[in-house]
Hints:
Helices cover 65% and strands 0% of the residues. The chain has 8 helices and no strands. Helix 2 packs across helix 4. The protein is elongated, with a radius of gyration of 18 Å.
Amino acid sequence: KTKKYTDSANVVAAFSLQDKVNMKELLKKLIIKNELVHAKSLVKDSKEYRIMLINLLSSNDNCKRTALLIKEYGFSLIDFPMFIVKLQKKTIKSYTNALFHPWEAERIGLGQIAELFEGYKSLPVSYTHLTLPTICSV
Length: 138
């Protein structure tokens, strides 16, 4: 089935048929099949479709890829507030797990978190999650 979607993406991109197909569904299928290269080929000439791809890709499993795509396309992370919320929730979950269940924690190092935000200078920050370990340890 992957070939079906990649072939469709190739035809749509080659003949500029983006406005003739359900781009949202095609991009979703390509993301599920881990065919980001084909998805990117579909959106290369359209800001609207780039934004659609980023929003569809924005999930807990694709945080790093989404952040890199935002940077690659020259957008600002602040343009994607729902993605910021997902990043914050993932970070909070990771640190909470590490605090309360260190033997089961999915560890995210500071370097990995820094990579997610690399290149983004203006970012609203919630200090609640930064002080949670301190509050819980008192």
